[in-house]
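Much of the work behind modern protein science is quiet bookkeeping, done one molecule at a time. The protein below has been through that process, and both of its lines are reproduced in full.


***
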Amino acid sequence: MKYCKFCKELCYDDALPFDGCKHKLEEITDINEPVRLCIAGGTERAMITGLLKDAEIPYLEQNIQPQGVANDIVTGYDVKLSNIGVLVPFSALPKASELLSSVETLNNTVEPHMDQIKAELISLKTKAAAKEDKPMNPALKTTVKVLSALAFLALIALVVFGTDAVTGFIKGLFNK
């Protein structure tokens, strides 16, 4: 699955996340990569962040620059506050999307693609488990052990000779 690393929007079928984004799409390689759950402001944002806190889902808020919207001098209110992107880790997206569906005033754009998201999560977790379960080559294991032992001996020698040099320097200060 691809996403825009700039706006953190998930992209389905290699489509750009929205018309204003022209950044290169990249593959998601980490299940902890933050992705956009929604854009909300005011009461909806407070409800969503409260639900995420209660569910112990980590989240970030990203300021979305308004495009084609009058500034606060003309409108009388801060437009930036109504355009906050709520980001969650990719691994928490299914649970967060379920919470988002309880906020009826927001359009849940993630829900229609949930099967694809869950399949991608399973794929990423399988790849991560395969990397962790891979046993180390015996020759490499022996090399690591020998280099670790040599590094430990060098550290001990450095401490001994360093201590000897410092005590010699201090004795030289008092023998004059």
Summary: The chain has a mean pLDDT of 81.
